[in-house]
Design a protein that fits this description.
Keywords: Heme, Iron, Metal-binding, Signal. The protein is mainly alpha-helical. The chain has 10 helices and no strands.
Length: 220
C-alpha cells in the first residue's frame, strides 16, 4: 500500500514538472510563478481516492488513514534526517505499543521461520483476505550463508544469535524490533510486523527462532 501513495505522489510531481517546463518556455515571470506550485497532502489524497479502488486486503483507506507515527515520518521521506527530538518521541510512543507474549514464550520453530522469511506474499490486492502473510526478510537482509539472493537495505542478520547470544534482554529487544521497528529506530523502513498485524504472534515466534535458535542456519 505504500507503493500506491508513492505512485500517486510521483504522478503529481511529474505533472508539476511538466507544467514547469511549459511555463519556463514562456519566460522568467511565468517560471517564477510556477515555482510556487506545491504538492500537498490533500493533492495526494485526492489523487489516491480518484485513481485507486480497494481490492482484497489492499485498501485505499490503508494508504490514506495514517497513524501519528506515519504522519510524523512522512515529513522525512528519506528517513535519514529525522531530528533527534522527533526520533526520541516516536520511539518512546512506539515502544509503549509493543505487545510481548502473555505466556512469555518468545521462541517458536526456526524451520517455519525460514519459510516466513522466504515468503514475500501478503496484503496485495491479489491475496485472499485473512490469508497468512510472509515477512519477505530476504528482500532487505542476509540471513543464511546458503541463500545467495538477498537485499542490503537492512543490515546482515547472519550469525545474529551467535554474535548476540540469547539473554533475556536480547530476546526482548529482538521481539520488540520485529513487532514495531520504530520503537528502536524512528521512521525505519522496516515494516511494523506485529503492530500492523502483518504477522501473527506465532509467526513472530518462528522468526525469532530463525534468528536466535543455535540450530538455525542463521547461526551456522
Amino acid at each position: 500500500m505504500k507503493t500506491l501513495h508513492t505512485m500517486a505522489l510521483a504522478a503529481l510531481v511529474l505533472a508539476a514538472s511538466g507544467a514547469h517546463a511549459q511555463t519556463a518556455a514562456k519566460g522568467p515571470k511565468a517560471e517564477k510563478a510556477d515555482k510556487a506550485v506545491k504538492v500537498s497532502d490533500a493533492d495526494v489524497r485526492q489523487m489516491i481516492e480518484s485513481s485507486f479502488t480497494s481490492k482484497g486486503p489492499a485498501t485505499v483507506e490503508g494508504v490514506i488513514n495514517q497513524d501519528a507515527t506515519q504522519k510524523t515520518c512522512s515529513q522525512y521521506p528519506d528517513r535519514l534526517h529525522v531530528p533527534a527530538a522527533v526520533a526520541k518521541k516516536v520511539e518512546a510512543a512506539e515502544l509503549k505499543q509493543v505487545k510481548y507474549p502473555a505466556d512469555n514464550n518468545f521462541i517458536g520453530d526456526w524451520k517455519e521461520g525460514e519459510k516466513i522469511a522466504q515468503n514475500g506474499r501478503g496484503m496485495q490486492f491479489s491475496d485472499q483476505v485473512g490469508a497468512p502473510n510472509g515477512a519477505n526478510c530476504y528482500a532487505c537482509h542476509q540471513l543464511t550463508k546458503a541463500e545467495i539472493s538477498f537485499g542490503n537495505i537492512g543490515p546482515s542478520l547472519y550469525n545474529y544469535g551467535k554474535l548476540r547470544g540469547n539473554s533475556p534482554d536480547v530476546v526482548r529487544y529482538t521481539w520488540g524490533k520485529i513487532w514495531d521497528s520504530n520503537a528502536y529506530s524512528a521512521c525505519s523502513n522496516m515494516p511494523r510486523f506485529g503492530h500492523k498485524g502483518i504477522l501473527t504472534e506465532q509467526q513472530i515466534r518462528d522468526v525469532m527462532a530463525l534468528l536466535l535458535d543455535p540450530a538455525s542456519p542463521v547461526n551456522q
